[in-house]
Design goal:
Length: 304
């Protein structure tokens, strides 16, 4: 069976690793600064070398280059996105020091890609990253609604086979909607959600809540913490009051995590890992294209 080796930078809780399952893509190493995410990754991927460290550190960069240059054909990753997100910037905003640190992380990842020189690479992030990229860096925008029940416009940076027909105006190919990945009750409604004005567009406000009908696509899954979970409510007319919170297990399913996935950490840690993850159904489309080009899969998706 033909396989290719990969490393996962700013790996988070392992969304890319789930997307790679069964495609002949062997993720040999993963790196992240945040320990709970590293623990989640290691629990679910015990054969991967998981490194808890800062990619901006020169010694770690040298280790990664020495250990994997010429040995991996693919680099995956997802640069932390909070500093670029609309949600963050309509709130407290991002300070100059944080901007400098996050830009340094982006530059470190791009430097590692250049130093290692893989045949393919793909980095996922919010659309705001495009303006931070060096001139000429290739990227495309994909809306996950084409492949999943979730509307999630993200850019995918790098060298990889482009899925056919992608674009922000793509008519969704996937017929899945929010209700297809919801679990059975009972459910809950939080005190901070009760009494809010219900709206059907993004509402990053203490007096409004985005209400998503179960028959439509889910809005973008963001970090679900006690601070933010009142911002997104599920509308289901069968329930008393008609609305409820989205549970973290449902958010994980909307991101494409399987039923047996194990998250490590506090409820806030878990909600953050889920919100930061790549949408796995979409990532799998990209990785399938790479696997076919590498000869790991036939044109009809059969392992070679």
């Amino acid at each position: 069976m033909k396989t290719i080796d990969a490393i996962d930078l700013c790996c988070g809780g392992g969304g890319w690793a789930v997307a790679a399952r069964g495609l002949g893509i062997n993720i040999v190493a993963a790196v992240d600064l945040w320990r709970p995410a590293c623990m989640t990754y290691q629990i679910n991927n015990p054969r991967t070398t998981v490194i808890n460290g800062d990619l901006r550190d020169a010694a770690l960069q040298r280790r990664v280059i020495d250990d994997y240059s010429g040995k991996v054909q693919l680099i995956l990753g997802g640069i932390p996105c909070e500093w670029l997100s609309i949600r963050r910037n309509v709130g407290n905003g991002v300070g100059d020091e944080e901007l400098e640190q996050q830009r340094a992380t982006l530059n470190s990842v791009l430097d590692l890609v250049a130093a290692i020189g893989p045949q393919w690479y793909c980095l996922e992030d919010v659309k705001g990253l495009a303006k931070e990229l060096p001139a000429g860096t290739p990227w495309i925008e994909i809306d996950a609604a084409a492949y999943s029940p979730q509307r999630r416009k993200r850019i995918y940076v790098g060298n990889f086979p482009r899925p056919t027909g992608v674009g922000p105006l793509l008519e969704p190919e996937s017929k899945e909607v929010l209700k297809d990945r919801l679990r059975a009750g009972p459910f809950r409604i939080g005190a901070r959600s009760h009494g809010r004005e219900f709206v059907t567009s993004n509402a990053f406000s203490p007096d409004k809540a985005y209400v998503a009908p179960v028959e439509g696509k889910s809005p973008t899954i963001c970090t679900l913490t006690s601070r933010h979970d009142p911002e997104f409510l599920v509308y289901d007319e069968r329930l008393p009051g008609g609305v409820r919170q989205l549970e973290w297990q449902e958010a994980a399913r909307l991101q494409g995590f399987p039923e047996d996935y194990m998250f490590f950490g506090s409820p806030t840690d878990v909600g953050t890992q889920i919100g930061r993850a790549v949408q796995i159904d979409t990532a799998r489309v990209i990785l399938s294209g790479i696997a076919k080009e590498a000869g790991c899969l036939s044109s009809d998706g059969v392992m070679q």
